[in-house]
Amino acid sequence: MQTTRYLSGQFLLAMPGMIDPRFDHAVIAMCAHDADGALGIGIGATIDGLTLHDLLDQFEIAHGAAPPAPVHFGGPVEPRRGFVLHSDDWSGQDTIQVADRWALSSTLDVLRAIAEGSGPARYVIALGYAGWGEGQLDGELARPGWFHVEGDGALLFDTPADRRWTSAFAKAGIDPRLLVADAGTA
How confident is the model at residue 29 (pLDDT cuts 50, 70, 90)? Predict the structure, then answer.
């Protein structure tokens, strides 16, 4: 009997040659993965020209203490829906803890708290998410295309988005320059 390993609290990395171009060099912070499906937030790319200040303006929230932090491409599902991955020193009305590694919030109270200077100390803001239905991610993980590593705060909060993919592979002892998109035959 095969046992499924659930990936909440880990990073899912797209391997070179991923068929779906939306996931090219993707780094996904997995927030939920169980028998019913999976949800992750992309943290490997930012959205050009969009900052936290732009989001605050859309909701008529004064910038206050909020820096003009980048907004990440969280995934192809619901790209207008916002998410904040953050340290667990703050909790709001919909905050969920993710494997004792980080927290996830998706309501305006977290943006208000960040602007007021009373929010989480560390955070990553994203629009959209990556989602999989029941058994879908498990099926994808059984084929080449994805690699996973343990999640940690340093990679999530301290590493620039454009270096997360390479840094995550390095954390696993892999030089991604040696990865190839195509498999050979014997």
Answer: very high
Whole-model pTM: value is 0.92
Mention every residue, 6+ apart, whose C-beta is less than 8 A from residue 15.
Answer: 144, 145, 146, 147, 179, 181
**The total number of residues written for the chain in this structure:** 186
Q: Are 120 and 136 in contact (CB under 8 A)?
A: no
How far is the CA of 127 from the CAs of 23, 45, 77, 124, 134, in angstroms?
Answer: 15, 11, 9, 10, 23
Q: How confident is the model at residue 76 (pLDDT cuts 50, 70, 90)?
A: very high
Report the chain's mean pLDDT, rounded to a whole number: 92
Q: Check pLDDT > 90 for residue 125.
A: yes
Amino acid at 160: P
Cα distances (Å, whole numbers) of residue 149 to 10, 106, 185: 6, 25, 27
In angstroms, the Cα distances linking 9 to 24, 30, 40, 98 are: 21, 6, 9, 6
Among the CATH numbers 3.40.1740.10, 2.40.10.10, 3.30.450.40, 3.30.230.10, which is that of 10-172?
3.40.1740.10
Closest CA to 164 of 98, 105, 85, 97: 85
